Amino acid sequence: MRPPLGTELLAPLDLAFWHLESDAHPMHLGALAVFAPAPGAAPERILHVLATRAAAVPRLRMRVRDVLLPVGGKAWTADKDFDVRRHISHVVVDDGDFMAQAGRLAGELMERPLGRGLPPWRMYLIGGPAGGPFAVLVKLHHALADGMRAVAIGAGIFDEIAAVAGARTTARGRPAVPPRSWPPDPRAMAGLALGRIGEVGRALGVGASVVRAGRLGPRSTTAFTAPSSGTRRLATADLDAGRLKRIRRAEGGTANDILLAVVAGALRRWMAERAEPLPAADPRALVPVSRRRPGVATASGNRLSAYLLDLPVTEPDPLARLRAVREAMDRNKAAGPLRGAGAVAVLADQLPPLAHRFGAPLAANAARVLFDLLVTSVPLPRSALSLDGCPLTALYPMAPLARGQSLAVALSTYGGRVHVGLVADGKALPDLDRLAAAVEEEFTQLGAALTGTDRVPVP
């Protein structure tokens, strides 16, 4: 049965993210966008621009509501009482280190779940001293968007994208929605049935891989075994994209391979500073993979799979770490994103709505058994961006923490820099700033390993 006119059923994976959430484990992702000031860009004007542009994004006017059918399902529906002022706030920080204060505040704001009776998103304008830089913190529920779609939605606040969107609306008007017959054509029904049979077979294979990949033995570091506190801490790091390209030219592989190797080295350095022994088993990272086709980033529903990767923390040589990561990722890619335990999101996509409602408590605890941390890359537009004439100088993506997880690392490249956002459980990783510093140090170490100079000593 179709949902009522004007509504859209949540896709299975979106429904899973919706049910996985609790007050102590909010399932939203986000980004901290930092801007340089421009003449005349007062906070009141910036707030007005944010409100106007956010209100013009149709997806940001949708909220989640219950439906009778399918049983256990939910649907997106337009919020008839939508008021953008409920979603945008202005927060002023004191004089001092603006980035340190903005990061600390962003961590606190990321702790707070999004209200379920409203469209699930928030924006915060974080302002510093008059005439100085400012930031915009964006929070989107994972049911509303995956990383690529979050970029497509959030990009609507920027001057360049808003101008293009406005021109298209003026030139073409509202895009036509093709009529859909119900019930579908019998031939389409036959194709759908065959497709579902194939999906069920794939889900069984993924399910078996998940069981085989589960680990019940000792974990790699005490920080990853700490119980979830519901607190959040944010730290950032900045890497030179030019150096990243030079390392890639010299060693091969992908930029993502290099960044994964840097994270492995940073964990090794950070454990040494904590006086923790090297783990018996390397920590395992979940590396999300988008299943979106090029050009359809705005299509509804999360479209994700993932790879599982053992980060070579026990390997002392940075170049050997990079080669180990590259070989492991090559094996993952050869198998494809729809196979293996990392494709647990694909498994979730095959389950009926009722299974998500009642299975969420069990599934919420599965993350800790499968992986130790999440490491994801978020693509950004290559062109220069601004907000009301204020240039964007950095954008730090923030990934959600699954239940039982203490650390998520997200990376994006913009303006010649790789911006790294680290989100952690505040009690499990109170020294997150040191881990962020270790990311920068290990990146320098990897570059130095190619020349044999300027090495950064390991404690």
Fold and architecture overview:
The protein has 459 residues and is α+β, with helices and mostly antiparallel strands. The protein has 2 domains: 7-172, Chloramphenicol Acetyltransferase; 186-379 and 400-451, 2-Layer Sandwich (Chloramphenicol Acetyltransferase). Helix content is 38%, strand content 21%. The protein is built from 13 helices and 15 strands. The protein has helices spanning 12-20, 43-55, 98-111, 147-154, 159-172, 186-213, 241-251, 255-273, 318-335, 344-348, 353-364, 366-370, 432-451; strands at residues 7-9, 28-35, 62-66, 74-78, 88-92, 121-127, 134-141, 232-240, 284-290, 304-310, 373-377, 386-387, 390-398, 407-414, 417-425. The strands form 3 sheets. Strands 5-6-7-2-13-12 form a 6-stranded mixed beta sheet, sandwiched between helices. Strands 8-15-14-11-9-10 form a 6-stranded mixed beta sheet. It has a 3-stranded antiparallel beta sheet with strand order 1-4-3, with no helix packed on it. The N and C termini lie far apart (62 Å). Residues 10-258 form the O-acyltransferase WSD1-like N-terminal domain. Pathway: Glycerolipid metabolism; triacylglycerol biosynthesis; Lipid metabolism. It is an enzyme of class 2 (transferase). It comes from Streptomyces griseus subsp. griseus (strain JCM 4626 / CBS 651.72 / NBRC 13350 / KCC S-0626 / ISP 5235). GO terms for molecular function: diacylglycerol O-acyltransferase activity.
